[in-house]
Batch of 3 targets.
Target 1
Amino acid sequence: MRKALALNHLAFEDLGSLGTELMRAGYTIDTVDACTADLRAIDPLAPDLLVILGGPIGVYEHETYPFLSAEMDLIRSRLAKKLPTIGICLGAQLLAAALGASVYPGTQGKEIGWAPIQAGTDATLHPFFSELLTPDLHILHWHGDTFDLPANAQHLASTAAYPNQAFALGQYALGLQFHPEVTAQNLERWYVGHACELIHAEISVAQLREDSRVYGPRLEAAAQRFWRSWLNA
């Protein structure tokens, strides 16, 4: 049986729909709290799939959050062997940094809310990605940092505010700045957990909730197909 390891940074930012598809595909899933675990004790080559999830801190804050250095080393070791790896939001930024790209605060402010993504220059090289490029499909964005495209990575998606929204390395690594894994029901935890951020950004929870009700079900359906296509690639 194949094994997936998920590194999470906030309990409520979980695997969501990706977890459902991993179980359907026969994976067993272990979830590790990256903030408190001994990441150097983890064999980076052991899992069949590594998933690095989101969180509100910056990759560049390793002095404040020392575990980030160990997490980056784990990711770097895995990528060197071209083993299947997915990074979502902070996870995508960690992937980019592990590959030598710069990660930094975005100059266009926080991108929080539901909006479409546009095809990147290399999107056609990865047919599985078309599931997220369907016209009128809105995807949840929730970030303030951004990253440069890593060397030799294929550019999959952009938005008007931030051009680097998704990238791939062949068939083995996938970085997603946005959140295709979310479900409308689980987002209720996000509204509480990120309450201070939302207040500071002057974003209405009521409007986010309504947008999630409208756009969430279609994203969940598209994400199901998207995860299945990537896992079977």
Note: The chain has a mean pLDDT of 97.
Target 2
Amino acid sequence: MKKINVTALLIVFVLSLAFIAGCSKGKNVDLSENTPVHVKYDVTGKDPGTLDVVYKGKNAKMEITMMKEGKPMTMQMILKDKTMYTVMDEGGKKMGFKNDVTNDESMKDFYAMLDAKDKIKEMEKTGSEEVLGYKCDIYKDKKGDILSIYKEKAPLKIVSKDNVSMTATLFEPNVKIADDAFEPPKDVEFMDMNSMQQNMPNDSIHK
């Protein structure tokens, strides 16, 4: 009876595992409605830069860094309890705005960055690709924008019809988020845009 070469069997076993892992179709994580997520994007196009997004449910924080007409500009947007806080920093000068977005139809694209399930109902599925090792379905909307979406929820790549693209360089689902992550900064005075619009003459608003 031949002796079994244990070392050889171990080598075959390890190689088999490596082969199976190599053939697997992308990474796989669960994404529920309240899964905390952190995504970083590289932005290319007319105003290149980066976009850093942290979100959980309907609360979110976005930090945008870009070159605007050759000058660095940063913008922070915090969505908490259906109020949007925006901080713009251009050359060290900060400006803050806040407005109630409860009934703001223009927020649809913003919400789609957090959860694309409603947006894709109006889009055409055209294929699939992997972004950062995650298998995404590719969708095209009526405007010609193309989104690569993971698990019908998280957009990991967006290419607009104007050739502005956002590609994820980091994707961290189930990330630990600080308790005050969605609190607006206390050192900024926020102008209330809703109040300003209410106090403007009607002819000025509709011009």
Note: The chain has one domain: 36-197.
Target 3
Amino acid sequence: MIGAIAGDIIGSIYEWRPIKTKDFPLFDQRCRFTDDTVLTVAVADAILTGRSYQDSMREMGRKYPDAGYGRSFIQWLFSDNPQPYNSWGNGSAMRVSPVGFTFNSEEEILTEAGKSAEITHNHPEGIRGAQATALSIFFARTGYEKKSIRSEISQRFGYNLDRTVDQIRLTYSFDVSSQGTVPEAIISFLDSDSYEDAIRNAVSLGGDSDTLACITGGIAEAFYNSVPEHIVAKVRDILTPELLKITDTFYLEYITRKS
């Protein structure tokens, strides 16, 4: 989960200033957490407390109204009668990493990922993106090799994962769709040799960089079984005490205990 948050923070300054290189500073003074982090922590909070994903996201989201939500999500967030809005966007995938780290069967992962998505992103692509991301994390943390992850996710979700980061980078541009983000984020992980390399791959595609890196970061953390300490330290400096407390509690309950 901290891997997803770190990806969001690292990618935050390139969301509207896309780059096509892996040679960039991981952090500078403009780095910040965005809606990707806020809603990832909200999903973790829902799991910890047993509250609904909707209640947790709406409470957490309202505490951070300037985090960078999309227009439809803002309307949902502040509505008196929130309803899913058939989104096929990548928002359901960027917030789902706690699900992948918590549950211990493929069936549970798919069910909970779907529940976390459908409160807003009830379009089939929105649900599929969340499920593919969470299941990738589950496979990564339970010892699957990259070849097996590529095969399983391709077959289950119909994503073309036979491309490389270098091939994608040539023509890729900003894309907020789930189907135009999740496969590319997974490939960024598959083509990496470390957590940091995965994040650099994702940002270098020149797209929706914070979300790409957030999705990639969750999978990479699960596979490489850690996030470099210098990255974790920067993330901890940037998060608010509230977000950090929930993150730490989640780790104690669901990640540290399992390792």
Note: The domain at 2-255 is CATH 1.10.4080.10 (ADP-ribosylglycohydrolase fold).
